[in-house]
Design goal:
Blueprint (H helix, E strand, L loop, with lengths): L3 E10 L7 E10 L2 E7 L4 H6 L2 E4 L3 E5 L1 E3 L20 H12 L4 H17 L2 E8 L8 H11 L2 E8 L18 H15 L11 E4 L7 H14 L3 E5 L3 H11 L3 H7 L7 E5 L5 H10 L2 E4 L1 H6 L7 H7 L3 E3 L4 H4 L4 H16 L6 H15 L16 E5 L11 H7 L7 E4 L2 E5 L2 E2 L4 H18 L1
Helix pairs in contact: 3-4, 3-16, 5-6, 13-14, 14-15
Length: about 450
């Protein structure tokens, strides 16, 4: 790729160690890597020799947003009657029968729809937790979908092995044998995982939850992940029912359950952690165990307000997640950053959580938690994953502090998004895949699922 320059930005939010915000700024990148950052005058020579120059007047440029927890297959089951007002366990029991009818083309269509929504809202890197595999579905279906959109992708091979007949929550028809789970996990890691800087795909290991897998599978998954040098992910302490299940079934709180099974450390991140107590927060801080904070989903399911302030203050690695679209109904990370800030202010007061802290968690915080030290920062040598936000449009116009306004009065989407230096969104529309095609495939799968229900 030739030299591309984004110039004349009102502000570039670098998210570097000094948290620099550069006015009247330029970013230059080539072959997927940032080669220059500074004021327009600092970068005048690069502007003069660039192959492509993009004007960002009226815009703020940030690192691309990072989504650390999602179930992309759920994008086709938003606002399902009977699940809309349920808490976690009841919500799952309502949706399991629908998900059991999924086919590979449904997962592909749902994943493309969810990733397109994320891309248009400024996301450049998304994880995904696929933990059910009916009717020939494989993780390969989601990876193919991500490639068609152009996002950097961290799919995790999830699993459920304890059905309702064995005391678990999912129906027996949706669980797999543990040897089969481990074999397929090895297959997808060997086929798709890329540990190099700039990797577009990294695979993780992700048994679903304490109420759907055995302790043996949790231990074996941790051993497998560390043998393959990949990350570990699961749900933990999502709501009061989750904690009660752990106490009754395992005789301990979720944090101890995780630690006893090898599920703490810098290669582990847990989703939600709404109900962690002080000792569990200290455990996660000490072991550098990450948390994907999903405020929208936590509100939607009535799970509670996560102790985010305490986690950040004690040094727990934290990123933001939109969670499944069936438990959030939206895939917009700036709205999650705003919700995270607002919930902490509800609990701790109006000055408790700064918009810039929320934006940091949504970018560099999530990237680092996922082990991506090559992303999440606008600096020379980092990957060119960027979001350009038009702050002169109606939704944000009137803001005096345009960086704070990204969280306080966010635009509905990004103007431009670049991943590895390649345009994924330009002028508010997808570049690598047509909206009409995504809509057509999603609508066909949705209609089939609704007819079957």
């Amino acid at each position: 790729m030739g030299l591309t320059v984004i110039r004349n930005a009102d502000c570039v939010v670098t998210m570097d160690d000094a948290r620099r915000e550069i006015a009247n700024a330029t970013i230059a990148f080539r072959d997927g890597v940032i080669v220059g950052v500074g004021t327009d005058s600092d970068c005048a020579a690069m502007i003069a020799t660039a192959d492509t120059v993009i004007d960002a007047h009226g815009c703020v440029v940030t690192p691309g947003l990072v989504n650390t927890h999602h179930h992309l297959y759920q994008t086709l089951t938003r606002a399902v009657p009977g699940a809309a007002n349920a808490s976690l366990f009841g919500w799952l029991q309502r949706l399991y029968p629908i998900w059991a009818r999924y086919r590979p083309d449904d997962v592909y269509a749902a994943t493309r729809l969810g990733l397109a929504e994320l891309a248009l809202a400024g996301c450049t890197l998304s994880s995904d937790h696929l933990y059910l595999f009916p009717n020939g579905v494989t993780l390969d279906d989601t990876i193919a979908a991500a490639a068609s959109i152009g996002l950097r992708f961290h799919p995790t091979r999830g699993s459920m092995s304890v059905g309702v007949s064995a005391g678990g929550l999912p129906p027996d028809s949706l669980v797999e044998s543990e040897p089969a789970i481990l074999r397929d996990t090895i297959r997808v890691i060997d086929r798709f995982h890329d540990a190099a800087d700039g990797a577009m795909v990294r695979v993780g290991v992700a048994p679903c939850s304490p109420f759907s897998v055995s302790q043996g599978l949790m231990r074996d998954s941790a051993l497998l992940a560390r043998d393959k040098r990949v990350m570990l992910h699961t749900h933990l302490a999502e709501d009061a029912d989750d904690v009660a299940f752990s106490l009754e079934r395992f005789g301990c709180r979720p944090g101890q359950y995780a630690d006893d099974l090898g599920w703490t450390g810098p290669d582990v991140w847990h989703a939600h952690c709404v109900q962690l107590d002080s000792s569990e927060i200290d455990l996660f801080a000490r072991t550098r165990t990450g948390v994907a904070h999903c405020p929208g989903s936590n509100c939607r399911l009535g799970s509670g307000v996560a102790p985010l302030m305490a986690m950040v203050a004690r040094g727990v690695p934290v990123g933001l997640g939109v969670d499944g679209s069936a438990s959030n109904d939206s895939g917009n990370l700036l709205l999650e950053a705003r919700q995270a800030m607002l919930l902490q202010r509800v609990v701790h007061g109006a000055g408790a959580f700064d918009p810039r802290t929320a934006l940091h968690i949504a970018t560099r915080g999530g990237a680092e938690m996922l082990g991506r030290h090559d992303c999440g920062v606008i600096a020379v040598g980092k990957r060119a994953d960027l979001a350009v936000w038009d702050m002169a449009d109606l939704f944000s116009l009137g803001a005096w502090d345009k960086v704070a306004a990204l969280v306080l009065s966010p635009p509905p989407g990004a103007r431009d998004v670049f991943v590895e230096g390649r345009a994924v969104v330009r002028d508010g529309d997808l570049v690598q895949c047509a909206r009409a095609e995504i809509r057509r495939d999603a609508q066909a799968s949705l209609q089939r699922l609704m007819d079957a229900a």
